[in-house]
Write a structure and sequence with these properties.
alpha+beta; eleven-stranded mixed beta sheet; 20% helix
Length: 572
């Protein structure tokens, strides 16, 4: 195997050179060969190993953006970056998640025995290759000592495949199509004409999502996937094969992982709640767990997110004078895997970015025990008050047409590039007749909300099924309303037209609503194409193609007190 020597010109004094082996083979238990690039500091070692297993191409920019081998080598780590099964240089068939537990176990054991390795392995990576860490940890290879997942889900039915029962169409469609490019190259590699045609058709579907492709029906059996015969993200298969869904689910299995974890998320990341849930579950299991939550999105850890500049302290390169995030991760790995033994016990820390005041704050726990759930009641004339209604008030009504849904505008999302994540101006959303808006008076003093947000809606629809979407917004002194967090719940009406209580989970946030600002809540029935449209017919998502317009009602009276519930933290 060819070996290249790369001069790193490191400013650190202890490592100035690195050696690289490309496409090093690792044989899995079934004989399939996966390939990895191996980066070693110059010298004989031994070194602790940092391993990353990803489906996005080990030599593409994303791989080294999460785990920079040069920086790692300067810190005394050996780095292994592997293409997962069926991707790029690795053999086998591409089936998302199916093999990650067994392949993760086999790869950790292989990496720990490589020349120069000291037998201790840590794993690092984001999103899919955050989940490959959890799967390897669940398999319990003895050499795996610590994992550091970034922006990774816990339950795929809470942000990856579905959310509140609605399909996460926004990520499902582009991710599956993008991942299909490598699958088509393998399929048609011996037929250049077929390859050109198939890739061209795939790109056309990918480019056309925002202008209509997202709207193809049925959403639960997305036509573009069938056209290209692609392995889908998981929604369809998880419904057909419930046991298979376990291959990507961490939720409910955390007590099987007896390792320290370093988890990083963002308030505007599509998997923000998953990061928090993974952390809290590990703490409940008595494990050492570290948590960092920035104001970031899934792919942006800078300080300008959406329309808001959170200040340079928010940038992951700075972290409020704590140094770069990668430095904090490497420091943690040196404490947890070191050079064969931990340098010091790791007790786990919590670092939260509090939006509004735009400051990092160190805590010892999540959720915060001092946060108090506080009700803000929906009232007549679009008011939002802490006082509940004392007398009957007229219900709010609107019609929801699935063929004219509310367009996704900001949020914790990962869609095609036409749909920006983060906090965005909501004026176009709030101008729609099918979006109910409830707003407080200007606040007399700052109000901090840190924790999990929910909306309790007493609502009715005239059809057999519909969706309820709720969105929390911050309205500044100039009247600009920007989204903070949101959620959806898909419901079946026991009796059409009859009010029922529905709880919409808006996930978690940390923000100070400043004095003079107002708190606002949206209530509507769609957020498309982030979530697939409920066609209001009650038909299964994998076959529904016909829509009906629904008449919606939201009640706010003493017997049916619809409300927004905010975890309020008293100011010190």
């Amino acid at each position: 195997m060819a070996r290249d020597s790369v001069v790193a010109h490191a400013q650190e004094q202890y490592v100035t050179e690195m050696q690289i082996e490309f496409d090093v083979p690792a044989e899995m238990r079934d004989g399939t060969v996966l390939r990895a690039d191996v980066y070693r500091p110059a010298g004989t070692g031994p070194w602790p190993v940092l391993l990353s297993r990803l489906p996005y191409g080990k030599q593409l920019p994303l791989a080294v953006a999460v785990l920079d081998p040069l920086t790692a080598a300067r810190r005394g780590f050996m780095v292994v970056i592997q293409d997962t099964r069926g991707r790029f240089a690795s053999e086998g068939e591409w089936e998302p998640w199916t093999h990650e537990e067994n392949d993760g176990y086999d790869t950790v054991r292989w990496a720990a025995a490589l020349p120069g390795a000291n037998g201790s392995v840590g794993m690092i990576g984001a999103s899919y290759f955050g989940n490959t860490q959890w799967m390897a940890a669940l398999a319990k290879p003895p050499e795996l000592k610590a994992i550091a997942p970034v922006v990774t889900w816990s339950d795929p039915d809470d942000g990856l495949w579905t959310r509140g029962g609605a399909i996460e169409l926004g990520i499902t469609a582009p991710w599956t199509l993008m991942m299909g490019a490598d699958a088509l190259m393998r399929r048609h590699g011996a037929d250049p004409a077929a390859l050109v045609g198939s890739i061209g058709s795939l790109v056309q579907d990918l480019d056309g999502l925002a202008e209509g492709g997202y709207g193809e029906l049925p959403a639960g059996r997305f036509p573009a996937f069938a056209r290209h015969d692609l392995p889908e993200l998981g929604y369809e298969r998880s419904r057909r094969e419930p046991e298979w869904a376990r291959t990507s689910r961490v939720a409910g299995r955390h007590d099987e992982v007896d390792l320290p974890t370093f988890q990083v998320g963002g308030w505007y990341d599509i998997f923000s709640q998953g990061t928090l849930d993974n952390f809290t579950a590990m703490r409940r299991a008595g494990r050492s767990a570290t948590l960092i939550m920035g104001p970031w999105t899934h792919a942006n850890q800078q300080h300008v997110i959406g329309d808001v500049n959170f200040g340079f302290a928010a940038n992951s390169a700075f972290m409020g004078m704590r140094g770069p995030l990668s430095g904090l991760q490497f420091d943690w790995f040196q404490r947890t895997i070191g050079h064969g033994e931990a340098l010091e016990p790791d007790t786990g820390k919590v670092l939260l970015f509090v939006m509004g005041v735009n400051q990092w704050r160190e805590e010892t726990q999540w959720p915060l025990s001092r946060a108090v759930d506080t009700d803000f009641h929906l009232r007549a004339d679009g008011r939002l008050t802490q006082e509940p209604p004392a007398v009957a008030e007229q219900a709010e009504e609107f019609t929801y047409d699935p063929m004219e849904p509310v367009r996704t505008t900001g949020g914790a999302l990962l869609l095609t590039d036409e749909f920006r994540p983060g906090p965005l101006d909501q004026r176009d959303v709030e101008a729609r007749a099918d979006v109910l808006v409830f707003t407080t008076e200007p606040l007399a003093e700052d109000l901090e909300v840190t924790g999990r947000v929910k909306a309790v809606l007493f609502a009715a629809t005239d059809g057999p099924s519909t969706d309820w979407v709720a969105r929390l917004c911050d309205v500044d002194e100039k009247g600009v309303s920007r989204n903070v967090t949101d959620g959806v719940v898909r419901v079946r009406a026991a009796t059409p037209g009859e009010a029922a209580e529905h709880v919409v989970d808006l996930w978690s946030t940390s923000i100070v609503f400043r004095a003079g600002h107002r708190i606002r809540l949206h209530v509507t029935s769609s957020n498309f194409p982030r979530w697939d449209r409920n066609l209001n017919t009650g038909e299964p998502e994998d076959s529904a193609t016909t829509a009906r317009v629904a008449r919606q009602q939201v009640f706010h009276d003493p017997a049916r007190p619809s409300r927004l519930v905010l975890p309020v933290v008293a100011q010190a």
